[in-house]
UniProtKB/TrEMBL annotation:
InterPro entries assigned to the protein according to its UniProt record, in alphabetical order: AB_hydrolase_fold (IPR029058), Esterase-like (IPR000801), Mycobacterial_A85_antigen (IPR050583)
Pfam families: Esterase (PF00756)
Protein name (database record): Esterase family protein
Keywords: Signal
Source species: Dyella lutea
């Protein structure tokens, strides 16, 4: 029997919103299990946003290959251990990173997995300057669509937490290279929007950004006539995309479930970067036919952005 529109929307809502369910809602969970390396948990307070749990993955042999690059990843509660996630999937980020480092396909790096804000995930990850570029009527229309923002977007404050508080703590505590060329950010869906926003707002802090299944509709779950978000994201990037010198940008999307709606906007975004002077050496936009909007799909292709964003250092 065909799936009804109501059931389809409910399933899509789980894909983009349920990743927000924080395991810490019922108390601090055990550390994620990883097959290689180890996890260090940090409970981070902030002047700008509510506290966040941060899981730092250190590769096998750390700190023998210091200084390490740093990959900041959003939705950190979904990265390492499928037994602890709401959908029993994970990015398997430690497995992929271990193999890439061992094979010399990337420089040695650590992963800083920042847990999301639970039911405020969309408000934390929606690029705030894009939101503020909308008229009041457009904001009201956007908030009335399938996923409602629980509060006004506060991603500028979240980036201040990341740049002014968390990164200095990581640089001090771990054997890492703190410069932009060794600092990358990566996320998927709304986290893909945040990766794009982070490198655009702080191009001197982040040298590379991976934006997987970037959720160009904003908070909507399906294409909607009158949705102001895609045009606003394109306009923001036209004005604020970082210059190519010293930067690497990676976009991708699949063609199934939520990812099926991303191509039209992505096809408008790609020429903006090429017009700014990006080439194949520092810009990629990939399409994965049949790939859905799931952690399993992102795990299957995670080696692509990792190798592109953090290639081996020049000798």
């Amino acid at each position: 029997m065909p799936t009804s529109p109501v059931r389809l929307i409910a399933r899509l809502a789980l894909l983009i919103a349920a990743v927000a369910v924080p395991a810490m809602a019922t108390g601090s969970p055990p550390l994620p299990h990883v097959t290689a390396g180890r996890i260090v948990r940090m409970q981070e307070s902030s002047r700008f946003v509510p506290p966040h749990t941060v899981d730092v993955w250190l590769p096998p042999g750390y700190p023998a290959q210091a200084p390490y690059a740093v990959l900041y990843m959003f939705d950190g509660n979904m990265l390492f251990d499928a037994t602890q996630t709401w959908n029993h999937q994970s990015w398997r980020a430690a497995d992929t990173a271990t193999a890439l480092i061992r094979e010399g396909r990337t420089r040695p790096f650590i992963i800083v997995g920042i847990w999301n804000a639970g039911d405020r995930r969309e408000s934390e990850y929606y690029p705030q300057k894009v939101w503020r570029s909308l008229t009041r009527a457009q904001r009201e229309r956007a908030r009335a669509m399938d996923l409602k923002l629980p509060v006004e977007p506060y991603s500028d404050a979240y980036l201040r937490f990341l740049v002014e508080e968390l990164k200095p703590r990581i640089d001090e505590r771990f054997r890492v290279a703190g410069d932009a060329s060794d600092t990358a950010v990566l996320g998927s869906s709304m986290g893909g929007l945040m990766a794009m926003y982070a490198i655009s707002q702080y191009p001197r802090v982040f040298g590379a950004a991976g934006c997987l299944s970037t959720h160009w509709p904003g908070t909507a779950l399906k294409p909607r006539e009158g949705n102001p978000s895609p045009d606003a994201f394109v306009a923001y990037l036209r004005a604020h995309a970082p210059a190519p010198a010293g930067h690497r940008i990676y976009f991708d999307h699949g063609t199934a479930t939520l990812d099926a709606m991303y191509a039209p906007t992505q096809q408008r975004v790609d020429p903006l970067f090429r017009a700014r002077g990006y080439t194949g050496a520092d810009f990629q936009s990939q399409v994965f036919p049949g790939a859905a909007h799931t952690e399993a799909a992102w795990a299957a292709r995670l080696a692509r952005p990792m190798t592109f964003l953090l290639p081996p250092r020049a000798r």
